[in-house]
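Hypothesis: this fold can be encoded by more than one sequence.
Test: take the structure tokens below, design a sequence, compare later.
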């Protein structure tokens, strides 16, 4: 499909798989806040968690890739669940399936949205260490200033649509991913990588396979998939690809291959070079001492600059993904119409402004770990419901007539069901338990409060909109060619 617009007045089809990939390439940077966090709980076994989590991403994204070609006008995970659960015809004002589909989209929005606040805080922290003039500036003021500057910059860049954002993505991919890989490969070249740091510290000496430790492991998997499975964001731009049937699978699986290499490489390089004690000495920035060891005196400064570029890139990824999730929800009648309004270039500016203001409030919390923990709850819910949506789409005869140019291997509905149950309830229980150990109940309460806010917004949107027949753009039996 090469039409300029996905629907009249809707998101514009202006990008190909390379541009979608460029935007999604910020995902590998999501490992940075978790290197020390994971090592503190499971030492070198963190490498295995990343391997299994990226593998989980491939298993889930086979399903999402098929959904993307079944519903080429749906906007990624937020659109798929709404399309599957919200297609019951009739004149019911409050449709439970529609509510469930919208809640999945809201969960996904909440999973990506706080990335802006988390990395705005980290940018401010790194700038304070890099620029002496910032030393006297209060932390909160610097965090808010860095967030405001980055958000306004990205809104200007993306005002004319995704093509400009993808161009920025190409630039930042070079500035962030290349140095990330170079710094990780350097210890192997210089001989400072020691395999014994991995094999001799596989798991903590007091680790036992009891219920509490298994819950910790499940919680870590929930946190890991927030990073290692997040490359499904390449599918969220389904309505904006020129040819979604081929562009979506290409963008998804090439990004997945890149994530597989980088997540394993970065964690292994840090562990083998610094050892567990060295990582825990710099739990928030272990890449800095590794760069200084392998690249010389200028390595630290270069690494900080690289990390700032990488953080801007992942903020760009989250900003675009979250704004299109809100557009998708409003377009489906699951959020007030205000969030679905776009400028003349097909950019959901209202949603972007709301998201920026929302994250400025999050920055005031000043605690990235608590924000991330709450965000992971939303991501677990979104993945679980979306995988169940895939199972429903495979077995419900109402969807049998839809074209599926890209198909997951045979029997994939059983794989999707297994990983859906792994997300809900197992990973959800695990991350709640891990949150209770790490930051108390605050992040869990915040997570569930934000998720619950969807209920009044949804009922308001149902009263705002007249009872609608099934949307033509997502209807069963729609000609998706």
């Amino acid at each position: 499909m090469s039409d300029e617009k996905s629907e009249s007045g809707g998101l514009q089809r202006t990008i190909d798989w390379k541009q979608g990939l460029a935007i999604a390439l910020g995902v590998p940077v999501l490992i940075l806040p978790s290197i020390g966090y994971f090592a503190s709980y499971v030492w070198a076994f963190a490498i295995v968690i990343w391997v299994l989590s990226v593998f989980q991403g491939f298993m889930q994204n086979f399903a999402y890739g098929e959904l993307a070609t079944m519903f080429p006008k749906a906007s990624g995970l937020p659109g798929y669940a709404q399309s599957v659960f919200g297609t019951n015809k009739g004149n019911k004002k409050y449709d439970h399936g529609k509510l469930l589909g919208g809640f999945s989209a809201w969960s996904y929005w909440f999973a990506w949205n706080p990335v802006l606040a988390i990395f705005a805080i980290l940018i401010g922290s790194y700038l304070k260490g890099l620029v002496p003039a910032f030393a006297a500036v209060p932390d909160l003021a610097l965090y808010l200033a860095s967030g405001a500057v980055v958000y306004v910059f990205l809104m200007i860049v993306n005002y004319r649509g995704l093509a400009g954002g993808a161009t920025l993505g190409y630039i930042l991919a070079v500035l962030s991913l290349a140095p990330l890989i170079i710094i990780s490969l350097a210890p192997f070249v210089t001989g400072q990588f020691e395999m014994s740091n991995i094999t001799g510290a596989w798991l903590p000496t007091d680790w036992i396979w009891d219920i509490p430790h298994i819950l910790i492991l499940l919680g870590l998997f929930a946190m890991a998939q927030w990073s290692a499975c997040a490359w499904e964001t390449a599918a969220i731009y389904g309505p904006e690809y020129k040819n979604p049937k081929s562009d979506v699978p290409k963008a998804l699986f090439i990004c997945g291959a890149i994530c597989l290499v980088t997540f394993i490489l970065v964690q292994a390089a840090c562990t083998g070079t610094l050892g567990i004690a060295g990582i825990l000495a710099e739990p928030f920035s272990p890449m800095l001492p590794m760069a200084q060891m392998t690249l010389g005196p200028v390595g630290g400064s270069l690494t900080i600059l690289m990390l700032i570029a990488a953080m801007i890139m992942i903020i760009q990824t989250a900003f675009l993904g979250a704004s299109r999730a809100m557009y998708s929800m409003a377009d489906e009648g699951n959020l007030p119409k205000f969030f679905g309004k776009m400028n003349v270039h097909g950019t959901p500016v209202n949603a972007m402004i709301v998201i920026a203001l929302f994250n400025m409030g999050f920055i005031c919390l000043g605690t990235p770990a608590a924000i991330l923990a709450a965000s992971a709850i939303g991501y677990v819910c979104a993945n679980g419901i979306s995988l169940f949506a895939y199972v429903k789409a495979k077995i419900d005869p109402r969807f049998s007539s839809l074209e599926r140019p890209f198909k997951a291997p045979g029997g994939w509905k059983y794989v999707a069901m297994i990983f859906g149950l792994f997300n809900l309830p197992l990973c959800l229980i695990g991350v709640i338990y891990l949150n209770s150990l790490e930051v108390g109940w605050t992040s869990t309460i915040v997570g569930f409060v934000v998720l619950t806010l969807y209920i009044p917004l949804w009922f308001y949107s149902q009263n705002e909109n007249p009872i609608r027949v099934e949307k033509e753009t997502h209807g069963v039996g729609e000609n998706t060619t």
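Residues 1-9, 468-481 have pLDDT under 50 and may be disordered. The two ends are 7 Å apart (CA to CA).
Hypothesis status: open.
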